[in-house]
Design brief:
heterotrimer; A alpha/beta (331); B alpha/beta (688); C alpha/beta (157); A: 331 residues; alpha/beta; Rossmann fold; 2 domains; 4-stranded parallel sheet; 8 strands; B: 688 residues; FAD/NAD(P)-binding domain; 5-stranded mixed sheet
C-alpha cells in the first residue's frame, strides 16, 4: 500500500519522534508513504481566520500537488493523501470539503493556483488521517500479527484531541463525541486502556501563547483525568496535543502545585515498541517527561485479561443492581 | 351571467355526436369560486372543449361539487343522453367519489366518469394564467380521450370473515381486542412475549393522574384472557399472511413454553426452585434478575411460565430437572414442540408498539460506562414497587440513596444525529419522575435538563406547574456531556452534567449522584420486516404509514390492515387507547356490512393471447395469478388482484388488460394531453 | 423570458404517493413550472415503456415517472419493478440519442410535495438547456419538407 504523505511542519521539528516512529511502523506493515514534493504550510489554525480565500488557496496548493503526484502512476493509491498531524488533516480535509461544496470558492482558489501553474479539481484527493489508514486500511488483525512484545501491564489513556474527530463531516472515521478506534488499537498491542472521558477535549491549542493560564488549566484537567484513572501514560495522535501536555507539564505543576509525571507518547511509538523495535528507533527519549519508568512496566505486571474479575454469583446480602450490558468489545 | 341561467353552454347540445364512436361526452369545468378561475380561463377552456370531437356539451360552473353542480351533470346525462362525463376541477382524491355518485344517480355507470385535476395540479401550482390555461386544456383533452375509451365496470363484492387478528398485546392491542370482542366478534390476539401487557405493565404510575399502571391495566389483561370471544396466543409469532381484505389466512407459530397449559396452575413453585438466575434484559430492562423458568411479573397473563432454553441447565447440559421435580401437577414438558396454527381472519390490527432508543448510542452521556447513569425505563422499574428495588430510589450499588438527580430530556429524540422527531411522552414521564423522586426521597434535589417542555395534553400543563412548585430545577439546554472527570475537589466522585443554560447564557457544571436519560421511542428493529410481512408501508423512521395523517389514522394503504398505538408513531397511553378503539370501530363497521365492495380496477388475462410464459406469475406481489398447467395459460384471481398493473405492463403478448387503465385508455390520454405538442403537419420524408 | 422555450413533460404519477405529492404541492401553493402534464396510474409498475415512447413520439420533450420511495410502495415493490424497466428503457433511449435528462424516475412520498415540485423545476431547467426533443428528426431521422416544396412536387406529378 502506497499513499501520498503530507508531513506538515511539526513532524519536521517538535514531533520528529512521530515522523521517525510512523515511518518505522509503516515499514513493518508494508505501507509506503511518498512525501508530496514541494508542499507548503497548511495554514495551521490561525490563517483561515485572517483571510479565507488566501487560506484556502494556500491549502489547495498542497491538494493540487498531491492530486498531481498521487495520480496512480507510481503505484500509489490514487488520490489518497495521509496527514499524521491533526491540524494538517483537518485543514486539508476541510478545504477539500468546502471546495466540493462551493463551486464559487473552487473557482476563486483555482484563479489563485493558476498563478503558479496549478489547478485543483474538488474531489480528486481524499485526505486521510494516519490513524484511519492504520486501523481501517491496514486493519487491527494485521497490526496484531506484527506484535512481538505485547504491552502487557501498561495502562494508557488514549487521547484524540479535538481536530481529528470534529467537525463530523465527510470522511470522518470515528464518533465525534466519543471515538474508540485508538482504544481498540492500543488493546490490540496488549496495553490496558483506561476510560478517559476527556479523550476528545481541548489540549489548549495555541492558547499557551495567548492566554497561558487558560491553556494550563485545560492541560491540568487532562493530566488529572489520566492520573485519576491511574494511567501510566497518555497516548496521542496529534503533535499539538503532545507538545502541550508534555512541554507544559512542569508549568502546570508549578502553577497548581501538582506533581504530575505523565509521559505523553505518540501512538506510533507504542506500535513500534510492540512490534519489537528499539526505543531509539521510535524516537523515545525526545519527550520532556521521561517515558522510561512507565515503559519499564511493560510485561512486569500480569496481562490485562487476567485483571478482569471472574464472573461470580452475587453474594447473599449484596443488593447491587446489574450494570447495563455493553456490546461485546472486539479484542 | 343571468340569474336564470347560472351556467353557460358552449356548444349546441343537439349536435350529432362524432359518427366514429357514438360516445357522447359532457365536459364540466369548475371555477371552484376563485380557486381555479383566478388562474385558469375556465370559460375559454369550456368553450374550446365544446369544439372537441365527441364532446356534446361543455359547461363551466362556479362550484361543480355543489348539489346544483351535480344536478347539472345528472340533468345532462338524462336529457342529452351523455354516456361519458369529464369534470375538470380538483383532485380526484377530493371529489371523484362525489361525481361518480352523481353519474350513478343519473343511471350512468360511474366508471364512465373521468376527472381532470386543474386545481391542485393547475391553478394552485402557478401564477402564469396563459400556461395554466393551456395545461388545463391539455388535461381536459386527455381526460376526454380517455373517457371515450372507458368501459362500464361493476364493483366486486366479497364476503368478510368476521374474525379479526390483533398483533401485539400492549395497551393498544388489548383495547382493540376487547372492543371487538365486546361487539360480538371473535378476535385472535397474538403476542410475541410470554405475557400480554406490553410496556405499560412495566410502569409504576401514569402521568398526569399518577394512578397506578398495574391497577388499571391488569383488569383489562384478565378480561382479555377470560373473554369468550378472544383467543389469546402469547409466546407466538406471525409467520406469514396471505389473502386480502375480508379473507386473510395467517400462519402463526406458537413457540413451545415447555409447560402444559392445561395442567399448570400458575403456582410459581418451579420459578422459585429454579437454580439459574440471570439478568432480565426484557421485562426488567437489565435492572433485575429472573430465573430460567420465569414469568415476567407475578400478575402475568397468562399465568403459565415459560422455560428459557438458552439459559436452562437441563436444555444446555441435560441435567437439573428441578422444576419438573417440584411441580405439583406434572405440568413441565421438556419435549414440547413449536406448534403451527393457521387462522382465518377478515381484518388485521397491528399494534406492535415501539422500542426504547438505545442510550448507548449517545456515548457522551455515559450510559453503560458510568454506573449511575440510568435509562428512563430502568428508572420506571426502580420506582415500581414490584421492581428490582421494591420501589426504593437507589444508586447502582443498591443501597445509597441519591441526593441530587439529573433528568436529561430528548435522548435520541429531537436530535439530527439520531431521530429528528419528538417522542411525545418523555417530557411528561420526566415530570412524573421528578414528582416521584420528591415523593420517595423528599430531601433530594432534582434537575430537569430540557429543550422545551412538551406538555400538550389534558391536565398536562397543570401537572408541569405542580412539579415546578414542588421545587424541581428546570434548566433549559441540551446537555453536552455527562462525565466523571472531576475538575476539582467539589466534583470528586460525582457525575458532572456539562450544559449550556440557555436562559442565563452560561456554561454550567452541575454535580449529581444519579442521571436518568429520557431515551426516546423508536420503531421496532424488525418493523420493516413486519411491514413487508403484512404488506404495508413504513416511513423513514420505521413507523407504519397510515392512509391519511389526519383523516384516516387507523387504516393503512393496504385494505384490511389497520394500525393502532405506537407502531404508527410515538404515543402515550391515552392516544394508544384511542387509536386501538378507533381501529376496532373501523373493523366492526366494516363487518357490519357482511360483504364489501371492492374497486373493479383489476387485471384480466385473455387466455387466447396468453403464451404461458409465466413472466407475470412471479411479478404479482399478491400471488393473484395462477398458472393452469393443463392449458398452459395464466389466470388472474380477481378477488386477490389489487390492480397495480405490474403484470399488465410486463406481458410480452399484451394478453393482460388492466381494467380502467387499459393500454388504449392510457395511450389515448397521452395523445390527448399532448394535443398541442405534436410536430407541425408537413410532409415528412423518410431518411434516405 | 417571454420567448424562453417551454418544454412539455408528461408526468406519470402513481396514485398513492406521487399523485398525492403533486396534490399536496398544489394545496400548499408551492409554485413550480407549469410544464408537467399529469397522468395518473395506480402504480409506476403500470407504466409500460411504450407509454414513455408514445409520449416522446407525440411531442413531449421529456417524461417524468414518479412513484413511492423504495420500501414504501403501496403494492409492496411495484416501484422496484418500474426501476428495473426504467433502467432497460434508458439504455435503449441512449442508443436513440435521447439524452438521459429527458426521461427521469423520481421517488416522492405523499408528504413530499415540495420535493416533487423541485423535481419538475429541475427537469424543466434541464430540458430548457437541451432544447426541444424533435423525435421525428432525432430518432426517426426524418427531414421536414417545407410546404412549398410539397406543392412543387405535387405540381410536378
Amino acid at each position: 500500500m502506497r499513499y501520498g504523505y503530507y508531513p506538515g511542519c511539526s513532524l519536521e521539528r517538535n514531533a520528529g519522534a512521530y515522523h521517525t516512529s510512523l515511518m518505522a511502523v509503516a515499514a513493518q506493515l508494508g505501507v509506503e508513504f511518498a512525501e508530496v514534493d514541494d508542499w507548503n504550510c497548511c495554514g495551521a489554525t490561525e490563517f483561515i481566520a485572517v483571510n479565507r480565500l488566501r487560506a484556502y488557496a494556500l491549502v489547495s496548493r498542497n491538494l493540487a500537488l498531491a492530486a498531481r503526484q498521487t495520480n496512480g502512476s507510481n503505484g500509489a493509491a490514487k488520490g489518497q493523501l495521509v496527514a499524521p498531524c491533526s491540524a494538517c488533516y483537518l485543514n486539508l480535509s476541510k478545504v477539500e470539503h468546502y471546495l466540493s461544496q462551493s463551486p464559487a470558492l473552487a473557482s476563486g482558489v483555482n484563479n489563485a493556483l493558476a498563478a503558479g501553474g496549478l489547478s485543483y479539481e474538488p474531489g480528486s484527493v481524499r485526505v486521510r488521517h494516519l490513524l484511519d489508514v492504520l486501523v481501517n486500511d491496514v486493519g487491527y488483525e494485521k497490526v496484531a500479527a506484527r506484535v512481538r512484545r505485547p504491552l502487557h501491564g501498561l495502562r494508557v489513556a488514549p487521547y484524540y484531541g479535538c481536530l481529528v474527530v470534529r467537525p463530523g463531516f465527510q470522511g470522518r472515521f470515528d464518533d465525534p463525541e466519543y471515538p474508540t478506534s485508538l482504544d481498540r488499537l492500543m488493546r490490540t498491542l496488549g496495553a490496558t486502556v483506561v476510560d478517559f472521558p476527556l479523550k476528545a477535549h481541548c489540549c489548549g491549542g495555541h492558547m499557551t501563547q495567548i492566554s497561558r493560564d487558560v491553556a494550563l488549566e485545560l492541560i491540568r484537567r487532562l493530566l488529572k483525568n489520566a492520573a485519576d484513572y491511574q494511567a501510566d501514560m497518555i497516548v496521542t495522535l496529534c503533535p499539538m496535543c503532545q507538545l502541550n501536555l508534555d512541554a507544559f507539564q512542569e508549568s502546570v505543576n508549578g502553577l497548581f502545585g501538582t506533581e504530575y509525571r505523565i509521559p505523553i507518547l505518540f501512538f506510533t511509538q507504542l506500535m513500534g515498541l510492540a512490534f519489537g523495535l528499539s526505543p531509539a528507533a521510535v524516537g523515545i527519549g525526545k519527550e520532556f517527561v521521561d517515558a522510561r519508568p512507565a515503559l519499564a512496566k511493560i510485561g512486569a505486571a500480569a496481562p490485562a485479561a487476567a485483571e478482569a474479575a471472574p464472573k461470580r454469583k452475587p453474594r447473599r446480602g449484596d443488593q447491587s443492581l446489574p450494570l447495563p450490558q455493553m456490546p461485546e468489545e472486539e479484542l | 351571467m343571468s340569474a336564470e341561467n347560472p351556467h353557460r353552454t358552449r356548444h349546441d347540445p343537439h349536435a350529432t355526436p362524432d359518427a366514429g364512436h357514438g360516445e357522447r361526452v359532457g365536459v364540466y369545468v369548475c371555477h371552484c369560486g376563485h380557486n381555479i378561475a383566478n388562474t385558469v380561463a375556465v370559460e375559454e377552456v369550456a368553450e374550446w372543449a365544446g369544439e372537441q370531437p365527441n364532446v356534446v356539451v361543455a359547461r363551466d360552473y362556479k362550484f361543480m361539487c355543489s348539489s346544483l353542480g351535480q344536478e347539472l351533470i345528472e340533468q345532462d346525462i338524462q336529457q342529452l343522453g351523455l354516456n361519458r362525463v369529464v369534470v375538470a376541477a380538483c383532485s380526484p382524491h377530493m371529489h371523484e367519489k362525489t361525481f361518480r355518485s352523481a353519474c350513478q344517480r343519473a343511471g350512468l355507470n360511474p366508471y364512465l366518469f373521468e376527472m381532470a385535476n386543474i386545481r391542485e395540479m393547475g391553478s394552485w401550482a402557478t401564477d402564469d394564467r396563459e400556461a395554466a390555461t393551456q395545461k388545463a386544456k391539455a388535461q381536459v383533452k386527455g381526460a376526454v380521450e380517455r373517457a371515450v375509451r372507458q368501459q362500464p365496470l361493476e364493483p366486486l363484492y366479497v364476503d368478510i370473515n368476521p374474525n379479526t387478528l390483533v398483533v401485539g398485546g400492549g395497551i393498544a392491542g388489548l383495547t382493540a381486542a376487547l372492543e371487538l370482542a365486546n361487539a360480538g366478534y371473535h378476535v385472535y390476539l397474538v403476542e410475541r412475549d410470554s405475557s400480554i401487557g406490553g410496556h405499560m405493565a412495566k410502569l409504576d404510575k401514569t402521568f398526569p393522574t399518577l394512578d397506578c399502571a398495574a391497577c388499571i391495566l391488569t383488569p383489562k389483561m384478565v378480561d382479555v384472557a377470560n373473554h369468550p370471544n378472544i383467543t389469546l396466543m402469547t409466546w407466538s409469532e406471525v409467520l406469514s399472511v396471505h389473502g386480502y381484505v375480508g379473507n386473510f389466512t395467517v400462519r402463526v407459530r406458537k413457540k413451545a413454553r415447555y409447560i402444559k397449559e392445561d395442567l399448570c396452575t400458575g403456582c410459581g413453585t418451579c420459578v422459585e426452585k429454579c437454580p439459574v438466575r440471570i439478568i432480565d434484559q426484557n421485562f426488567e430492562v437489565g435492572l433485575g434478575y429472573r430465573k430460567a423458568v420465569y414469568r415476567n411479573f407475578p400478575q402475568a397473563v397468562p399465568k403459565y411460565p415459560v422455560i428459557d432454553t438458552a439459559n436452562c441447565t437441563f436444555f444446555q447440559r441435560g441435567k437439573c430437572r428441578a422444576c419438573e421435580i417440584v411441580c405439583p401437577t406434572d405440568a413441565i414438558d421438556f419435549n414440547q414442540k413449536d406448534e403451527i396454527v393457521d387462522l382465518e381472519v377478515g381484518n388485521i390490527i397491528l399494534a406492535t408498539g415501539y422500542e426504547q432508543f438505545d442510550a448507548r448510542r449517545v456515548p457522551q452521556y455515559g450510559y453503560g460506562r458510568l454506573a449511575n447513569v440510568f435509562t428512563s425505563m430502568e428508572f420506571e422499574r426502580m420506582v415500581n414497587a414490584a421492581g428490582p428495588t421494591a420501589g426504593r430510589v437507589v444508586l447502582r450499588d443498591g443501597v445509597t440513596v441519591p441526593k441530587r438527580i439529573a433528568i436529561i430530556h430528548c435522548v435520541g429524540s429531537r436530535d439530527k444525529n439520531y431521530h429528528e422527531y419528538c417522542s411525545r411522552a418523555c417530557c411528561m414521564a420526566a415530570l412524573k419522575f421528578a414528582h416521584l423522586v420528591h415523593e420517595r426521597v423528599p430531601e433530594a434535589e432534582v434537575f430537569n435538563f430540557y429543550i422545551d417542555i412538551r406538555a400538550s395534553g389534558k391536565h398536562y400543563e397543570e401537572f408541569y406547574h405542580r412539579v415546578l412548585s414542588e421545587g424541581t430545577h428546570f434548566i433549559r439546554g441540551r446537555v453536552a456531556e455527562v462525565t466523571d472527570a472531576a475538575r476539582g475537589p467539589g466534583e470528586e466522585g460525582q457525575l458532572i452534567i456539562q450544559v449550556e443554560d440557555t436562559l442565563i447564557g452560561k456554561q454550567r457544571r452541575i454535580p449529581v449522584d444519579m442521571v436518568i436519560l429520557m431515551a426516546g421511542m423508536e420503531s421496532r428493529k424488525d418493523a420493516r420486516q413486519v411491514a413487508a410481512l403484512f404488506g404495508l408501508g413504513c416511513d423513514y423512521d420505521g413507523w407504519f404509514t397510515e392512509r391519511h395523517a389526519k383523516l384516516d389514522p387507523v387504516v393503512t394503504m393496504t385494505e384490511g390492515i389497520l394500525v393502532a398505538g405506537a407502531c404508527q408513531g410515538p404515543k402515550a397511553i391515552p392516544e394508544s387507547v384511542a387509536q386501538g378503539s378507533a381501529a376496532a370501530a373501523r373493523v366492526a363497521g366494516m363487518m357490519g356490512q357482511r360483504v364489501m365492495k371492492r374497486e373493479p380496477v383489476r387485471a384480466c388475462i385473455d387466455a387466447a393471447s396468453c403464451s404461458g410464459c409465466r413472466i407475470c406469475n412471479t411479478l404479482c406481489p399478491y400471488h393473484a395469478i395462477t398458472f393452469h398447467e393443463d392449458r398452459k395459460v395464466s389466470e388472474v384471481i380477481p378477488a386477490l388482484c389489487q390492480g397495480c398493473g405490474a403484470c399488465v405492463a410486463a406481458c410480452p403478448s399484451a394478453a393482460i388488460s388492466g381494467a380502467h387503465f387499459t393500454r388504449d385508455q392510457v395511450l389515448a390520454q397521452i395523445e390527448g394531453i399532448l394535443w398541442d405538442a405534436r410536430q407541425p403537419e408537413v410532409l415528412w420524408l423518410e431518411p434516405q | 423570458m417571454e420567448n424562453e422555450f417551454q418544454p412539455i413533460i408528461v408526468g406519470f404519477l402513481c396514485n398513492w404517493c406521487s399523485y398525492r405529492a403533486a396534490d399536496l404541492a398544489g394545496t400548499a401553493r408551492v409554485h413550480y413550472a407549469p410544464t408537467m402534464r399529469p397522468i395518473r396510474v395506480m402504480c409506476t409498475a403500470r407504466v409500460e415503456p411504450e407509454f414513455v415512447l408514445k409520449a416522446l413520439r407525440e411531442g413531449a420533450d421529456g417524461v417524468l415517472i414518479a412513484g413511492c420511495h423504495p420500501g414504501e410502495c403501496h403494492y409492496v415493490e411495484g416501484n422496484i419493478k418500474a426501476l428495473r424497466r426504467f433502467t432497460l428503457l434508458k439504455a435503449m433511449l441512449r442508443q436513440f440519442g435521447v439524452e438521459d435528462e429527458r426521461v427521469q424516475l423520481v421517488w416522492a412520498a405523499a408528504s413530499e410535495g415540495k420535493q416533487l415540485a423541485e423535481a419538475v423545476d429541475r427537469m424543466t431547467e434541464q430540458l430548457r438547456a437541451l432544447g426541444p426533443l424533435r423525435w421525428r428528426q432525432r430518432v426517426l431521422g426524418e427531414q421536414p419538407v417545407a410546404r412549398h416544396a410539397l406543392e412543387v412536387e405535387v405540381g410536378a406529378d
